[in-house]
Automatic annotation (TrEMBL):
UniProt-listed PANTHER family: CARBONIC ANHYDRASE (PTHR18952), CARBONIC ANHYDRASE 15 (PTHR18952:SF134)
Domain Alpha-carbonic anhydrase: 1-227
Membership in a protein family: Belongs to the alpha-carbonic anhydrase family.
Keywords for this protein: Glycoprotein, Lyase, Metal-binding, Zinc
Species whose genome carries this gene: Labrus bergylta
Cofactors (names): Zn(2+)
InterPro entries: CA_dom (IPR001148), CA_dom_sf (IPR036398), Carbonic_anhydrase_a-class (IPR023561), Carbonic_anhydrase_a-class_CS (IPR018338)
EC annotation from Swiss-Prot or TrEMBL: 4.2.1.1
The protein, known as: Carbonic anhydrase
Lineage: Eukaryota, Metazoa, Chordata, Craniata, Vertebrata
GO cellular component: a single term: plasma membrane
């Protein structure tokens, strides 16, 4: 990995505000997706333009397994959240997927702490309404920044890769934040035990678990770290060559 001193905090426009209208939480059979309204965008931090925020979704493991899509030093976190943003010059997602920089995805590890995350409750309290594939629920907008490690937003890793779900288009600038979001064990269990990949009237109910893509090689891609990231400091830097190559998701 290489430190890039030009990689400073991204500008998250509208993330501190309460947007108008309603957001929609959906179980699409592969994940739980929060579709957000217009009004938020991402720029700066080395991104080649302005990216409009579209949705966020989650990847998790099972009752006894972790399920983040990236690993650090071989460690897989319990969950990972992705905020998906589309380059403003594109009229739709189809056009963006033809551009190697068409999407900017912000990735956040999710770890477990003792107490409930009250801000994460905006989502976790609605999960019972989207237990089965195809179910949706309205979510009152809240400041998206309240979910994020806002005091550590200048600490991240950067690489060019792909979507982690079909069609796995190599059209993503990945920004993976070093400091995780913390939720309680009970909030994690709501994902691993109470979300199903089958419809409500299915003959056999299938829990939605381990919905993460397995680690892929970097294929000589450069993994950059922001100027404030901590992982490259001290003795940790000696381990990165062999361990942190596992961060890439692209095939």
């Amino acid at each position: 990995m290489t430190r890039n001193e030009s990689l400073d905090s991204l500008h998250l426009e509208g993330f501190d505000a309460i947007q108008t209208g309603h957001w929609t939480l959906e179980n699409d059979g592969h994940s739980v997706v929060l579709q957000v309204s217009s009004g938020m965008s991402v720029s700066g931090g080395g991104l080649p333009g302005v990216y409009h925020t579209m949705q966020l979704h989650f990847h998790w493991g099972g009752p006894a397994t972790n399920g983040s899509e990236h690993t650090v030093h071989g460690r897989r976190y319990p969950m990972e959240m992705h905020i998906v943003n589309m380059k403003s010059i594109h009229p739709n997602l189809t056009a963006a997927l033809d551009d190697p920089t068409g999407l900017a995805v912000l990735g956040f590890f999710i770890d477990v702490a003792y107490a409930d995350n009250v801000h994460f409750g905006h989502i976790s309290q609605k999960l019972s309404s989207v237990s089965y594939k195809g179910q949706t629920a309205k979510v009152k907008p809240f400041p998206l920044m309240s979910l994020l490690p806002k005091h550590n937003m200048s600490q991240y890793f950067r690489y060019y890769g792909s979507l982690t779900t079909p069609p796995c288009s190599q059209a993503v600038i990945w920004t993976l934040y070093e400091v995780p979001i913390y939720i309680s064990w009970s909030q994690l269990v709501q994902f691993t035990w109470q979300i199903f990949s089958t419809e409500v009237d299915a003959e056999q109910v299938t829990p939605l678990q381990n919905n993460f893509r397995h680690i892929h090689p970097t294929f000589s891609r450069i993994i950059s770290v922001s100027k404030d990231a901590k992982l490259l400091t001290g003795a940790a830097s000696k381990k990165l060559c062999c361990c942190f190559f596992l961060i890439s998701r692209a095939p």
